[in-house]
């Protein structure tokens, strides 16, 4: 029997992915394992033989959304009739363990983050398939994988050692571990071959990459090596903690044309007392010096941060200190989140928990101010010429892409008068609206 015949399991699996880009990457890895093992992947969960809900439980709201998705799948005719299996993977099984199995009895299996690479064995078990009989497709057998999106995420490490007092990630994802350069390069290579033109490198703590190797390496070395290896591909870094923004990294970004001049650095607050309670470092002075250090080398760099409003014990004065900072800051994008009280974290036990309405009210005030400050900054880009990676068309045919200053999913897009997906065009920015830009494609040599 030929391998391709032995491989055919005739079973289809569909994914529903909740949460952030890191979960998208995990889904994509499970998907790839299953395809190589002969499963097909269906875009229609109600028609599939199994549905994997890859959950997020970073904060309470995300857990609730994941539970809703699980219950919705549990209610599919296919699942209720026993024709299809429901599988729950990702952060929820990692965070709640056995407790989850007694709560969600409809699920046939639970696959925590640390076991996602065993997904084929789990699915084979559910379907009663014998892998020794079926075999796997290896690279040489020419499996045709789907085209990859114009922009793809690649995870460079997992876990986190920082234990910020509000965050459940170290308990869910475990200790920090960097992935080997070869593994990352192979993933980038695969995505590029399948059509990706931008690779976004992500992790919980990107700046720490390589410091846990026997022979330590740095994020600057990783990004330089990848930039040289893939000169026609945009590279972008997300989630660099302030301590990770070294001069070496700034230089690596500045000196490579294909690395986006973009820094995503979560500050979370500016008041030193609250930052200490968050088990983080920093102050207005330190953050200002960090921004100046970046701008001294890359004046037009785009800077993004995130802030938490309503952390336990945050006084009105401390919150106003944050508002004052935002009103004067030199940042392009600011994400705002109301504090979420997560069981099992240190901050859960802190005195001075703030009323839900008050937290949301502070977050809204901060968001409105951030929108006003950042959109004014973005409007100053009118008249500049920028390289834009064409991403696709809206339903009405409007072409859109993203400039180097716009990260996928969070910063808005640039609307264009023409362009083909995957091409990099040079556009004159003619208008902005809040976070969106509009430009016309025009040849120019000094586009940023
Ligand atoms: S650095 Fe990020 S992932 Fe790590 S504990 Fe802090 S908030 Fe959580």
UniProtKB/TrEMBL annotation:
UniProt keyword Protein biosynthesis, yes or no: no
Coiled coil ranges: none
Domain called Radical SAM core: residue spans: 146-377
GO cellular component terms listed in the entry, alphabetical order: cytosol
Localization per Swiss-Prot or TrEMBL: Cytoplasm
Annotated ranges, domain MTTase N-terminal: 11-128
Family: Belongs to the methylthiotransferase family. RimO subfamily.
Protein known as: Ribosomal protein uS12 methylthiotransferase RimO
Taxonomic source organism: Berryella intestinalis
Lineage, highest ranks first: Bacteria, Bacillati, Actinomycetota, Coriobacteriia, Eggerthellales
Recorded name of the encoding gene: rimO
């Amino acid at each position: 029997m030929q391998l391709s015949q032995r491989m055919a399991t005739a079973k289809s699996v569909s994914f529903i992915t909740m949460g952030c880009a890191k979960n998208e990457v995990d889904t994509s890895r499970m998907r790839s394992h299953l395809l190589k093992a002969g499963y097909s992947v269906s875009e229609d969960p109600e028609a599939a033989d199994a549905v994997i809900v890859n959950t997020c439980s970073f904060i309470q709201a995300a857990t609730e959304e994941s539970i809703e998705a699980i219950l919705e799948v549990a209610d599919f005719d296919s699942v209720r009739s026993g024709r299809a299996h429901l599988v729950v993977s990702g952060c929820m099984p990692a965070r709640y363990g056995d407790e989850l199995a007694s709560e969600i009895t409809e699920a046939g299996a639970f696959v925590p983050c640390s076991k996602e690479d065993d997904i084929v064995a789990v699915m084979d078990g559910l379907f009663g398939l014998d892998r020794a009989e079926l075999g796997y497709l290896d690279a040489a057998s020419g499996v045709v994988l789907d085209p990859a999106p114009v922009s793809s995420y690649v995870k460079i490490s997992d876990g986190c050692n920082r234990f910020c007092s509000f965050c459940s990630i170290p308990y869910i994802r475990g200790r920090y571990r960097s992935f080997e350069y070869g593994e990352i390069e192979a993933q980038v290579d695969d995505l590029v071959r399948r059509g990706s033109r931008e690779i976004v490198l992500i992790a919980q703590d990107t700046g720490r990459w390589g410091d846990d190797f026997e022979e330590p390496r740095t994020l600057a070395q990783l990004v330089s090596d990848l930039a040289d290896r893939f000169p026609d591909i945009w590279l972008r870094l997300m989630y660099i903690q302030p301590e990770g923004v070294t001069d070496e990294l700034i230089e690596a970004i500045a000196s490579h044309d294909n690395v986006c001049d973009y820094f995503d650095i979560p500050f979370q607050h500016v008041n030193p007392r609250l930052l200490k309670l968050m088990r983080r470092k920093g102050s207005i002075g330190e953050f200002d010096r960090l921004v100046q250090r970046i701008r001294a080398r890359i004046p037009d760099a785009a800077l993004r941060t995130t802030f938490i409003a309503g952390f336990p014990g945050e006084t009105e004065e401390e919150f106003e200190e944050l508002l004052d900072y935002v009103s004067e800051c030199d940042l392009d994008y600011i994400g705002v989140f109301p504090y979420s009280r997560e069981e099992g974290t240190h901050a859960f036990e802190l005195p001075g928990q703030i009323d839900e309405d008050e937290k949301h009210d502070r977050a809204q005030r901060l968001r409105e101010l951030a929108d006003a400050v950042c959109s004014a900054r973005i409007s100053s880009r009118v008249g500049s010429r920028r390289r834009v990676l064409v991403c696709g068309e809206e339903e009405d045919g409007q072409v859109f892409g993203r400039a180097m200053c716009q990260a996928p999913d969070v910063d808005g897009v640039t609307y264009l008068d023409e362009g083909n997906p995957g091409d990099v065009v040079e556009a004159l920015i003619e208008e902005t609206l809040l976070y969106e830009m509009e430009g016309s494609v025009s040849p120019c040599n000094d586009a940023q």
